[in-house]
Structures are given as C-alpha cells and as structure tokens.
Write a structure and sequence with these properties.
The structure is a homodimer of 366-residue chains. Chain A is of the alpha/beta class. The first copy, chain A, is 28% helix and 26% strand. The first copy, chain A, folds into two domains: 206 residues, FAD/NAD(P)-binding domain (3-Layer(bba) Sandwich); 141 residues, D-Amino Acid Oxidase, Chain A, domain 2 (2-Layer Sandwich). An eight-stranded mixed sheet of chain A has the order 5-6-4-14-15-16-13-17. The first copy, chain A, has a six-stranded mixed sheet with strand order 8-2-1-12-19-18, with helices on one face.
Chain lengths: 366, 366
C-alpha cells in the first residue's frame, strides 16, 4: 500500500524527496515555514564538489559521488520539464595551494584516492587553466568531474516540477510531529491545525529538532556560513576554486559566489566584520583581480551539522517517520540521491545505498 | 522685492536653503529627482568635524567652524519644531595615530592651530576616554568641540520643517536651467514642463553640471565614498574617531558608521571588494573588538568635489542664478551656514561670510 506523505521543510532535500515520491504516484504534501529554499538551500554556493571536498574515501564520499553521478540527468530532466536553467555546469574544480613545498593538508589526505579523476598541477599548468589565479600559487589539484549549479534556480525548477507532479505545498510552521500509539501519524502546525499522513518525512535542515523527531541538539546543530556575491566585468573563472581561506563558485554571467565561514552562532544569521573580511581576503588571495569586483550581496545561512559530518538518513526511532536531514555542506549535492533514498524508505523498497553509516540512531549507539 | 525661488536638488544643502528662505517669507519650490536626501546627504556619516578634518586654518576651515557654531541652535530648532531627534551630539572627535614617534601627518599640519580646542593625548589618556581603542595606538589628538549628527534623521526633520514653512517639494529631473536675455528665469524639467522663478538656486551636488549652470566637469566631479554600518552589542565609542584608514562615527543605539573611500568612479555607485576591505581593516585596526560586529548595511555615495576642496558658493555667471554646491565631504556640516549664505544672496543682503574664496568663477581666473 502506498501511503500519503507529509514532508516537513521545503529546502532542496525536501523538494527533491517530494518530487521523487510524487513521480512514483505518492500523494505528497510539503509544509514549509517561509518559502521554498528560504534557508540553507538558497544560501548555498552550489558547488557539486564530491571530489574536491572529500576528506577520505569513506561512505560519505561514496554517497556524494553517487549523487554527483545522478546530477547531470536529474538536472537536465528539471530543465527540460520546467524550462528553467538551473545552472548545472560540468566545470570541474581546483583546490589551490600556496604552500611552497607540498600541496595543502586536505590535498594530501585525499591525493591518490581518485586515480585519474584527480590531477596534480604545477603553478604553470594551473595558470594555463585559470589565468586569473594569483601569481604566487604553488599549484593545484584538479578535479575534472566536480560540477556546479545555481541553487536559487534549482529551487525554482524544483518548485515548478513539484507543482506539475501534484505536490501540495502548504505554508506554515510545524510545532511537532504527531505520535499516536508509537507511530508518527502526521504533524501539528503552530496554528494548531493537524495534518495527518501515512508517513512523515523530516527534511527541515537546521530546524529539525522538533518534538517527536527524536533528534537531539547533540546530534544536529546549525553552523553559520557567511557568503558574498561579487559582480565582475567579465569572465574571471570557469572552475570552482577552493583556497585555504575561501572558495569561489563562478556563474556564467560574471557573478561569483564567495564562501564560506563555518561558525557556531546558534540560529543568529548575520554577516560579521570578521567573517566578511576573511572571505574577501581569501578571495583576493586566490584571484587578485577580484579587488576591483563589486560586492553585490552578502548573506549567511545555517547548515545542519552532525557529529561526524554525515547526514541523518533513514527510518526514525518511531514507525512512520523517515528522516533526511543533517546534510551540512552537502545539501545541494546530496539532493538527488536523498530523494531516491527517501522514496525507497517510504515505499518499503531497498534503499539504493547502504544507510548504515548514516543511521539516525548511530550517535546513541556508543 | 522678494522674488520667488526654485531650488534644484533636495539634499541637506538644498533643504537648508529652502527652509532658511521660506522662514524669511520667500515662496520656495524645491525640485528633487528622487526623494529628499536620496544621494550624498543620506550616504554621509554625519561627522561635524570642523576641527578634526581641518588641513589648515584657511577660509574653508573658518567656514566649517562658522557652520559648526550654528549647529547646536539650528538642530535644536529642528528637533523642537518637528519632534524628530536628528542625533546631534556634542561628542568631540579624536584623530588616532599609530606612528611610534610623532603623531600623523595631518595632525602635524593642524596641531597648534586651534589652541585650547585641540589637545594631544598619549595612549593612556586616549584609552581613558575610549577604552576600546586598540592597545597599540601611539596617541590621539582630541577635538572636544567636534560633533556628530544622524544624516537620514536630519533630512527627515528638514523635510518636516520645510513642509510647515510652506516649501513646495516637486519630484522630477531637471533638464536645464532656463536662460532668457542673459538671466536665469527658471528650469525646464526632463518631462518638458517649465518652472519659472525669480531666482534659481542650484544645490544639486554631484549632479550640478546642468546646462545653464556654467559649471564644467573640470570644476566639479563626483568622488565616490563607500560606507558600512556596523551593529554592535553595546557601547563601543562616544567620540567620532579618525584613523589612518577609516573613521568611525558612533550612534547612541550601538550602530557605528565606518567610512570612507575617496574614489573617482564617475557616477557608478558601488561597494567594491577593495573598498570594503579597506574600511573593515581600518575599523578593526582602530577598535579590534569590532571584528565581532555585524555588518548591517553597506552603500556608497557620490560627493561633489572641486579642485581646491572648497564649495562653489555665490552668484552664478548668469543673473538670477545662485550656486551652492561642491561641498565635497562637508555637505552636512556646511548646511546651516550655506542656508544663511543662499538666503542673503537671494534677498540681496550682504552674505554672513566673505565668499571670495568660494566664488563660482575662481577656477577660471588663473
């Protein structure tokens, strides 16, 4: 039997899950407090950096690679269906090092893991690919298969596709998950209204610590990321570029997203002097010509972090509850695979990946 | 005979002139392209720094001191009449030096000019007045008579006072000053409408290069100033503080205005990476605790500069035209005295100060 589903939270994860379920014929209602993508999803830089952001070859990296592999077809389907260019570009990424001798620490940690999908460049080779990089770089690792996307455009396309697929988007704050006889049966809104459903899917990012979720503040907390959008006169970069103090995610129209701080600041969104100085310093260190760029916009977002950096993905402690949150820096990247995982869990099918490493109860085990 | 007057430009200068004229019974129409204070006047930091900003004891400094002396009564009158707190505070200002030995260059240039109105402080004395100043400052000059004001509040109060005084504010762009038989007789709007008046007063700041004004781009040009508003948790400073790379103008509510770049960038308003980095670096160098401050807002304004830094103030080349523009960094400070000067010129009275050094034709003489 295919239940109807209520999804809590309309970020990229919630929207991807809603769309995947609706495409399988499930009746989906999605509840969003503000508007779709209002929080971390539209704050994100849109780096699909499964390679460049890997710390090891473990399960999280494998999950990211799986999702990256889905992205080309998934995003092309959205573009075709909605006519919205989501900015998916197989641009590749570079991790630039300034150290005189060997490449940087993270480069060391991962170098060799990806075989031919990773290539060490000396400064001349890096400059040949990206001439605006600083003259004093030592070299770079090139990850040719990393990509980028434009998150606000992605959210718009997801919204349009959900509407076509019959997803009902409701605006409202969720007060708690309703539990009856040990089973999640819906949600209670802050307005007092109750929404009943066969399955509840929790995709509320940093706002997932709801009564009934079973998630504690020790397992999930917000990490603030400050960002800036620069406007440049012409082409500056093609690749996503990571440096020691900032990353740069270009757009085709000359815009360039600079990120990001990682701060524990509770739920206080703010751009601070320290944060923005660090980003701008880091950006100019990578590309000196950016000193002349215009600062078009600054903002911050709250990413849902977990103790091991991996998402909380799987069946909740309560029957009828599916959890897909805690995606930290990888929410945009992991949206396609998460949509597939949630769909499998709701329909009672085998999930497409081993969820053991991402189990919701994993931090309680020890 | 008291003519009716049309004033071009509703910044602090235009509003001050309009109010002064209307209070003398003159019928005033003020034409503003956007809204009152839309440009440099609301972009300003509101530093009434006649002492701290002096480069010498010449005529411009004397004009600034005259206007500063008017400010307490002028602003109190506005507050009383309108109920709007314009943020006038006799806070004093400090010019902080980091040089190990003597104080900074500008301090040298002016030190001794102001007698008892200027006092040299060693680092301990400066910290006693402003404990949040950086530990590594060498000392400061204290200018106890400098003040500060909140420019957007000032513009609001001027607007309310003008309305009470019967000034008619018209919204529209001015295409040119109408000249008939060698006399200014009004203005022609971009809409094609004509506004006739006995006297035309040009107070359009960086937008004063109008046909019929006689002002050339060699005599007046825009200098961009980038600014940031920081939000702090509590009291940071009382005095306005000038440092080598930035100044800080506090507000009672914990806000703090940081300024300012001085750039030739045509009429392109923008906040740039270089500009904002410089301001933030300069602010943190003065008050290290500002690293934790929130950046509430950034913006830029276009100040009308002239070859010698002084305003263009006096009768225009054409009869019936009075010019009061080019106030550069001193528009807010010079508003009260400029209102008096314009009123005297319109009414045919002797101006309250010698206008020779500020004459509109002074750059053509050589």
């Amino acid at each position: 039997m295919i239940d109807d589903v209520v999804i809590i939270g309309g970020g990229a994860i919630g929207c991807a899950a809603a769309l995947a379920l609706a495409r399988r014929g499930v009746q989906v209602r999605l509840i969003e407090r503000a508007h779709l993508g209002a929080e971390a999803s539209s704050a994100a830089a849109g780096i699909l950096g499964a390679y460049a952001e890997a710390h090891d070859a473990g399960p999280l990296t494998q999950l990211c690679l799986r999702s990256l592999a889905l992205y080309a077809a998934w995003s092309a389907g959205l573009v075709e269906e909605t006519g919205i260019d989501v900015g998916y570009r197989p641009s590749g990424s570079m991790r630039v090092s300034f150290a005189k001798g060997p490449l940087d620490e993270q480069a060391h940690a991962t170098f060799g893991v990806f075989g031919d999908d990773e290539r060490a460049l000396d400064a001349a080779a890096a400059h040949a690919l990206e001439p605006q990089l600083a003259p004093d770089i030592a070299g770079a690792l090139l990850f040719a298969k990393d990509c980028r996307i434009d998150p606000p455009a992605l959210v718009s396309a997801l919204a349009a596709a959900m509407e076509r697929a019959g997803v009902v988007v409701m605006t409202g704050g969720v007060a708690r998950i309703t539990i009856e006889n040990g089973r999640a049966t819906g949600v209670t809104l802050e307005s007092g209204d109750a929404v009943r459903a066969g399955t509840v899917v929790l995709t509320a990012g940093a706002w997932s610590l709801l009564e009934g979720s079973g998630i504690t503040p020790l397992e999930l907390w917000p990490i603030r990321g400050q960002m800036a959008e620069l406007r440049t006169a012409g082409h500056v970069l093609g690749h996503v570029v990571f440096g020691p103090a900032a990353y740069l995610s270009p757009r085709d129209d000359g815009r360039l997203i600079v990120g990001s701080t990682q701060e524990r600041a509770g739920y206080r969104k703010a751009v601070t002097v320290r944060g923005l100085r660090g980003l701008l310093d880091g950006a100019v260190a990578l590309v000196p010509g950016l000193a002349d760029a215009e600062i078009a916009r600054t903002w911050s977002g709250l990413r849902p972090a977990t103790p091991d950096g991996g998402p909380l993905l799987g069946a909740g402690a309560t029957r009828g509850l599916v959890i897909a949150t805690g995606h930290f820096r990888n929410g945009i990247l992991l949206a396609p695979i998460t949509g597939e995982v949630v769909t499998a869990l709701v329909l009672g099918n085998a999930p497409p990946v081993d969820l053991g490493p991402f189990g919701v109860q994993r931090f309680a085990r020890g």
